[in-house]
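Question thread 4412

I'm putting together a teaching handout and wanted feedback from people who do this every day. The idea is simple: show students a protein as raw sequence, then show them the structure tokens that encode its fold, then repeat with a second protein so they can compare. Below is the first pair exactly as I plan to print it.
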Amino acid sequence: MSLAPHPASIRLSDLPPGARGTVIGLNPTGVPDPQLLRRLGELGFLPGEPVQLMRRGPGGREPLAVQVGETFFALRQVEAQCVEVSPEAGMPRRSA
């Protein structure tokens, strides 16, 4: 379940804390472990699912507390970088 980056998409890891979006798909670019994409899909990071970056760990780093659908997860930065999202309209974007 991979796709090319959508023009209006950003990575889940680039959402600011509290921001919401919708999962567009999973991007395999730079993924060190191919099983990672499968695991993310199994966890519910599927196209159309609502997602919110709740907060970041100490110092704005890992882990990232994320809600997808009705479920909460703690993700590593590398995992969150694989998830392409369409941010909610009017959301400020983090600079890369």
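The second pair follows. I'd like the answer to focus on this one:
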Amino acid sequence: MNPRLALLQPYPFERLRELTRGVTPNPALAPISLGIGEPKHPTPAFIKEALVSALDGLASYPSTIGEPALREACAGWVERRYGVRLDAATQVLPVAGTREALFALAQTVVDGSKPGAAVVCPNPFYQIYEGAALLAGAEPVFANGDPAAEARGDFSVDWAGIDDATWARTQLLYVCSPGNPTGAVMPLAEWQRLFELSDRHGFVIASDECYSEIWFDQPPLGSLQAAKALGRDDFRRLIALTSLSKRSNVPGLRSGFVAGDAKLLRDFLLYRTYHGAAMGLAVQRASIAAWNDEGHVEANRALYRQKFERVTPMLAGVMDVGRPEAGFYLWPRLPEGFDDDAAFTRQLLASYNVAVLPGSYLSRPARGVHPGRGRVRLALVAGLDECVEAADRIVSFIRSP
């Protein structure tokens, strides 16, 4: 067996199941789950119709690189969304959702045989970053949130907390904008700093942008857009990753794409040819339909906006929480008297039948700080009425003697 498998920590939802094992939720209340970030809005009918109409594609092996029409649809969406023109033949590659690609990319770009190889990622973070680093033979290094920014209600990452010696041995940097779980969006100045570090030390940047289409005031800046604004039209050492799961409410479709540095994508394609992650033709046709339509995305965004407008003020009366810049999570700090986020989660489920995720399950202790401790993540993925009911129960739970 690969000895590095022993380094992997249980996934947050496995830990949540173990935490709540033996808990009997209040039977008088219907269960409401805000724990898992799985979109619950209906899948648009036209996407399902495109999938069904292409089922004849099940009779053929798909190519790893995907159909030209799909790559063109992805490139066309990038141009409409970010004003960035890509070569669909060399700068776009379909993938089976961002999770699979985030993991596989590390196996492509990290040389774990080099002593001290490091992969840097934000903290709190999406646990795939850590697992991908470990199985690629690298050390995961965590960049905490900036405490000064957090005090202002901003969840910017403190990249300065990583010393030069660590950057020098870094081979891959994961970033997430909009952030999971914080919803923070990286501004151009932050991108410029990371690009300069990449130029100095030669590491690849993997930009996880799967929440980019759920926003409230203005569309988030994307990594390719930032690179172009800074004159980096070749997108050197940059790979952007996105998917349809959140944007189009099709998490089960497992469809996304990566885009950026053509040389990196050529190597990634070689890896994927052996990895066996080609996208089926029916899924490709459904994906083309989804990427070519924005009406359903605008309607989806309006549903999330309505939920945040209702729920955030309710919770702000009892918790330190504000509406994020983007994404579908709230990341509140627990009020005084509820310092243990795991205990809070168990008690809330038992008393009010609402499931949330302990914040400490989404971060690691680093440089004397455990950024998720004392917080919980609330995924506003259920319907409006359920989310409002869940918020009302949380308020009651906190205010109960």
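Top answer:
Good format. For the second protein you could add a caption like this: The radius of gyration is 21 Å. Residues 75 and 87 are 7 Å apart (CA to CA).
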